[in-house]
Structure to design on (226 residues):
């Protein structure tokens, strides 16, 4: 059973527009949730993480995510897209046994 | 502070061969995890090492094995390579000991099996 699901494998936004990348998690998993970004031919870089301290989490590069237990969601947002935001974004959850389970990723394209 | 490094960057092998990939963890990190990322997919957990002991394993066959050394660097060994083993192999280190620990990823090793 999947632990996180990313809706939309490709998202395109105009430069300056709102970025919304969706992630839903399985309610059975402990709520340690993460968003990572991967630029072409590079490893993953942490954007932000939720560890139950606060439901609205602010990350690097102007990104933030809100943990909504009622919706089992942890969507990633950014008010204004920049060309440099074009990348692959992964939602991940840390499971018991120290495993991280990653979603299938969402490729973000920013249109000038 | 040095980040996570991996070697080699790229590697080409033929089916049936064996390969060893290496990872140096970030300073102060005693936990290393390995992932396989096939083209167009998210990373899949292979296994984790904590203080030189395996500390969790994903759904990978025994021909995927690993080691962690006293300095917390790590190796991933894959025997009897198959075409489907072609992927980006990522190593990630973390401080260890807490469930919310962040993993810091290296740039990966691109393995091609012909």
């Amino acid at each position: 059973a999947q632990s996180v699901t990313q809706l939309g494998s490709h998202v395109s936004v105009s430069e300056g527009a709102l970025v919304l990348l969706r992630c839903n998690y399985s309610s059975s998993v402990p709520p340690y949730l993460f968003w990572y970004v991967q630029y072409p031919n590079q490893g993953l870089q942490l954007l932000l993480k939720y560890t139950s301290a606060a439901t609205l989490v602010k990350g690097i590069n102007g990104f933030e995510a809100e943990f909504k237990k009622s919706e089992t969601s942890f969507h990633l947002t950014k008010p204004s897209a920049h060309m440099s935001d074009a990348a692959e974004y992964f939602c991940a959850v840390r499971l018991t046994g120290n495993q991280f389970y990653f979603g299938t990723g969402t490729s973000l394209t920013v249109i000038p | 502070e040095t980040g996570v490094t991996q070697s080699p960057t790229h590697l080409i092998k033929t089916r049936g061969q064996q390969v060893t990939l290496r990872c140096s963890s970030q300073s102060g990190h005693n936990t290393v995890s390995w992932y396989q990322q096939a083209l167009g997919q998210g990373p899949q957990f292979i296994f984790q090492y904590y203080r030189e002991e395996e500390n969790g394993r994903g759904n990978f066959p025994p021909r995927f094995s690993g080691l962690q050394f006293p300095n917390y660097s790590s190796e991933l060994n894959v025997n009897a390579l198959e075409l489907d083993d072609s992927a980006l192999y990522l190593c990630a280190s973390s401080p260890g000991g807490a469930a919310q620990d962040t993993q810091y990823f290296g740039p990966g090793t691109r393995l091609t099996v012909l």
